């Protein structure tokens, strides 16, 4: 199988760096083909702007830069900057995608957010399929990346209890919801439960060995682990075009949890 590992840590000798190296070797030893997008090593440009289209100079005088419409025009006409097009090719190639990063301010590092913003072009990751009052596009379970699997590998400073149902940071499923549901499920991925390593400050050789073993098991199970049962948009659970859950679906549940069956 083909696996794309999108990795965001600035220091190769970090815990994340060691785990990334371990994952690549483990997957390759199992016969898979791995590509790594090491965003800091690539000096990835994180900000989405007018330079993302190669026709910037051709823009008629006075025409404003529109982040969505410029993305659409560049994607449809083969005018995207090369770094964006190459990452899209890697996504098309991959059977599974792993995003690996340290939790920074309750989210992904800015460089990885910038990868998502720029690579997820209009027509590629959003704006796909029919948009009408009867159908709201191919997304949330459908879309360009449907049929592929995705998983987060995340390290945190906080303890597991800090991220438990009543922990002060909020439940980890809620914190990761915008990434797992909004960024991965939206363009079609089947999203596997995340592999989270808590309290990383307390990592010595013995603990590292346990983490490595547990991660290796998750990588072995990449094709058999059941995805998070997010509710597909176009399978009847939602009113269209309001896109609210029908009253008979999880009637007593609100918020993020309502969107998981
Ligand atoms: P490292 O610092 O590289 O390593 C962690 C420990 O593992 C060290 O003790 C190191 O000695 C050991 N180690 C590393 N490699 C090995 C190895 N090969 N073998 C054995 N031991 C090893 N945390 C939160 O919980 N929530 C937040 O919102 C949050 N926001 C942050 C924002 C910023 C800007 C920063 C800098 C940190 C934040 N943190 C937060 C903490 C952050 O999540 C952790 O520092 C990070 O996850 C640790 O990963 P690392 O790869 O940088 O670990």
- Please give the domain count: 1
The helical percent reads: 25-40%
- Ranges with pLDDT <50 over ≥5 residues? none
Gyration radius, in Å: 19 Å
CATH homologous superfamily name? Flavodoxin domain
What does this entry look like structurally?
The chain has 261 residues and is α/β, with parallel strands linked by helices. It has one domain (2-227): Rossmann fold, CATH 3.40.50. It is built from 6 helices and 6 strands. Strands 1, 2, 3, 4, 5 and 6 form a 6-stranded parallel sheet that branches. Strand 3, helix 4 (110-119) and strand 4 form a beta-alpha-beta unit. It is globular and about 60 Å long. Bound molecules: flavin-adenine dinucleotide. Residues 9, 14-16, 18, 102-106, 155-158, 200-201, 203, 205, 208 line the site of flavin-adenine dinucleotide (FAD).
Walk me through the topology.
Elements: E1 2-7, H1 15-29, E2 33-38, H2 67-76, H3 82-93, E3 96-102, H4 110-119, E4 149-155, H5 172-185, E5 190-191, E6 195-197, H6 205-220
Parallel strand pairs: 1-2, 1-3, 3-4, 4-5, 4-6
Helix pairs in contact: 1-6
Provide key terms for this protein:
261 residues; alpha/beta; Rossmann fold; 6 helices; 6 strands; globular; binds flavin-adenine dinucleotide
Short characterization:
The chain has 261 residues and is of the alpha/beta class. Helix 1 crosses helix 6 (205-220).
């Amino acid at each position: 199988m083909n696996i794309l590992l999108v990795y965001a840590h600035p220091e190769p000798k970090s815990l994340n760096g060691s785990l990334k190296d371990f994952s690549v070797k483990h997957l390759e030893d199992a016969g898979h083909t791995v590509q790594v997008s090491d965003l800091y090593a690539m000096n990835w440009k994180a900000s989405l702007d007018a330079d993302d289209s190669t026709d910037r100079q051709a823009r008629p005088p006075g025409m404003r830069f529109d982040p969505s419409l410029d993305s659409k025009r560049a994607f449809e006409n083969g005018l995207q900057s090369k770094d964006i097009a190459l990452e899209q090719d890697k996504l098309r190639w991959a059977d599974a995608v792993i995003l690996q990063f340290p939790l920074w301010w309750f989210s992904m590092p800015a460089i990885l957010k910038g990868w998502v913003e720029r690579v997820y072009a209009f027509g590629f990751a959003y704006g796909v399929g029919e948009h009408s009052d009867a159908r709201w596009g191919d997304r949330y379970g459908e879309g360009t990346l449907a049929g592929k699997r995705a998983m987060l590998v995340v390290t945190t400073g906080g303890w597991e209890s800090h991220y438990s149902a009543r922990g002060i940071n909020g439940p980890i499923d809620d914190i990761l919801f915008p990434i797992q549901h909004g960024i991965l499920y939206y363009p079609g991925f089947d999203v596997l439960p995340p592999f989270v390593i808590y309290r990383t400050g307390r990592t010595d050789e013995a603990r590292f060995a346990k983490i490595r073993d547990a991660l290796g098991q998750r990588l072995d199970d990449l094709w058999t682990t059941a995805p998070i049962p997010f509710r597909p948009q176009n399978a009847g659970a939602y009113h269209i075009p309001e896109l609210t859950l029908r009253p008979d679906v999880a009637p007593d549940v609100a918020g993020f949890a309502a969107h998981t069956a």
